[in-house]
Amino acid sequence: MKKRIFSGVQPSGNLHLGNYLGAIKNWVKLQNEYESIFCVVDLHAITVPQDPEKLRKKIIEVAKIYLAAGIDPQKSTIFIQSHVPEHAELAWILNTVAKMGEMERMTQFKDKSQKEGRESASVGLFDYPVLMAADILLYDTQVVPVGQDQLQHIELTRTLARRFNKSFGDTFIIPEYFIKEEGKLIMGLDDPSKKMSKSAKSEYNYIALSDDEETIRKKIKKAMTDSGSEIVYRDDKPALKNLINIYSLLTDRSTGNIEKMYAGKGYADFKSDLADVVIAFLRPFQEKMAKISDEEVLDILKKGADKVRPIASKKLSEVKDKIGFII
Ligand code: AMP
Ligand code: TRP
89 with 168, same domain? Predict the structure, then answer.
């Protein structure tokens, strides 16, 4: 029996190299060893305001990104979170298991709610990690491949699963996380002390998977560098380290090898080559995306939901029975 993995990306903002290198790239490899479920988490996306027409497009775009990146619908299941209502239903039940204190310690909520002010953040944004726990626990997920920023949410998921099991008897599998050291945290191009982020204020923070050649060159040219002129992979040069890291992950060259290649060369040479590397990766990726039709992707998503719904429904019935509902 293959172990099961589950992961997802929100259909909001511009998906960027961080999402690819931190998460999706790993899924493509893992789908060969695991029974894989990848979700487009639209219920999570609406925890901050979304324009309905843009959201609808984004959901399809994220699914196309999964496919263009190499997720194979013959091997993996892809579906839209809201097509399986059990996610929201289990989240409600888990809301009664989660405690205010532990929810208030979630750093992503603190960061995200800071932007507009805590008073005006939605209750959904606060509750976001419980919904994520429901996503994971509904499918007896054993491993959750994500970037570093999701670690705290997975720890919460483990806590909720253990607490539920203790109160009502063994129901949920306690999931492990899979965070690959390389790529787990790609930093912003404009500020290497903050992660590359979809919701960044400046578009110079990220390279979107949809950026064209000219934009990529412009962004990399403008990317922050550290003082000095040598191309070295060192902690005291965080901006350069991040750029070398991206170069390394996209070419499968070691960082040491890249240092050697650029010995005696300066930032300008390195950045110009990095732009070539990013373009060489993104061009075929974007071409693949453009070839996938909306109909094709909607068909895959519908079949995906049909496939996983029975798993979710069975788990939810078990939960309802355990807590004393009449099923
Ligand atoms: P999100 O953009 O929040 O929907 O994240 C989708 C996936 O990408 C999650 O697994 C994140 O951990 C991962 N991710 C997001 N930003 C980064 C980043 N800057 N570096 C590495 N992984 C990231
Ligand atoms: N919260 C995750 C993020 O923003 C997305 C997500 C939702 C997820 N549900 C999940 C990831 C379940 C893994 C498993 O990155």
Answer: yes
Note the pLDDT tens digit of each residue in 241-278.
999 999 999 999 999 999 999 999 999 999 999 999 99
Amino acid at 307: K
Q: pTM of the full predicted structure?
A: 0.96
**Ligand 1 atom closest to the CA of 148, numbered from 1:** 12
CB-side neighbour CA atoms (13 Å) of 140: 15
Residue of minimum CA distance from atom 22 in ligand 1: 22
Residues 57 and 172 in one domain: yes
- CATH number, domain with residue 154: 3.40.50.620
Residue nearest to atom 5 of ligand 1 (CA): 9
Mean pLDDT over each residue of the chain, to the nearest integer: 97
Q: Are residues 140 and 232 in the same domain?
A: no
Edge to edge, the sheet with strand 35-40 lists 76-80, 35-40, 4-9, 143-145, 176-178
* Same domain, yes or no: 280 and 299: no
What residues make up the domain containing 312?
A: 4-179+294-323
226 & 314 share domain: no
Given pLDDT bands bounded at 50, 70 and 90, which one contains residue 112? confident
